[in-house]
Amino acid sequence: MSTESLRRILGGPTGLGTSSLYPAPREEPPTAGSPVPGLYHHPVAEPDPVRTEEVDRRSKEWAIDEIGLYPPEWEEQFDGFGIGRYMTVCHPDAPTVDHLMVAARLMVAENAVDDCYCEDHGGSPIGLGGRLLMAHTSLDPLHTTPEYEPQWAGSLHDDAPRRAYRSAMDHFTDVASASQADRFRHDMARLHLGYLAEAAWDQTDHVPEVWEYLAMRQFNNFRPCPTITDTVGGYELPADLHSQPAMQRVIALASNATTIVNDLYSYTKELDSPGKHLNLPVVIAEREGRTEREAYLKAVEIHNDLMHTYEAEAAALAVACPLPIVARFLRGVAAWVDGNHHWHQNNTYRYSLPDFW
What we know:
Layout: H1 3-10, H2 49-66, H3 75-81, H4 83-90, H5 97-118, H6 128-136, H7 149-155, H8 160-175, H9 178-203, H10 210-219, H11 229-233, H12 239-242, H13 245-265, H14 267-271, H15 280-288, H16 292-320, H17 324-346
Helix pairs in contact: 2-4, 2-5, 4-5, 4-17, 5-8, 6-9, 9-10, 13-16, 13-17, 15-16
Region (Disordered): 1-57
Keywords: Lyase, Magnesium, Metal-binding
Cofactor: Mg(2+)
């Protein structure tokens, strides 16, 4: 297949590894926030405001009325997160709002587990493993004896994060294939393993080497979100294509890059919160003896390297496996990467940039 033929199938701008990834030229949108200077990214158009508002409305209705996820005093934070914008900009190919809601519920549930078990709202590294294991059974059901199954089933309603996981997973499996559901469970186990590594370092006051931190971030990252891009898009990338090493590498690189985006945009927010929060600039500063500014700029370079490698690997995979279903999935992952940056850049309720320029 010629390069021109591939471009006709996939569309999009040229550049290092980008020609095979995008369905249409992106527009420079009006923005509420400034991007991190020097950060390699692709601007995207503003998401559909009607869909955005509807996802916000339905997500809040689900969180309050259906599962009782949070108390009234958390409402401003829920609204400030902007789940509707996040999902709509990350999944532009979702055929319906119902498909967007599949992703929205899962992300809200994941954030509830992170906040309530690990972070701001009562989280602690102490005992985290037990809490995460019980929560994971909301996604990956326990198969046990009749004597003990009712006790497990009752435990799924014991706290808000487990209720959220259980409900979100029920909605997900209504539309996902068995293979897609199992793929998601696997990636959530990866996520929980990353949570536990970070918690163990917290308990021992250990600052990892930079390479160790990046290894942890490959697990404690956004991977469960782009991995379901086909489910949200209303189709399925077959398991044999999803599991091939080249595809797994593309997904991992994309997820790693998007997670460093979070480290960069949440940097000042984490510095202002109680305790010591590990993020890439903090680890670089301590382990490599750099100033805060130098460490932050080095983290930008690491992100850019990951992005360039991701795009080159995705382009190579599109050429090596020129199937329309592969092209579609790669476009979905690319849209998620770009949308994730757009949401972080524009969520000025949560994030502000350090004064390093």
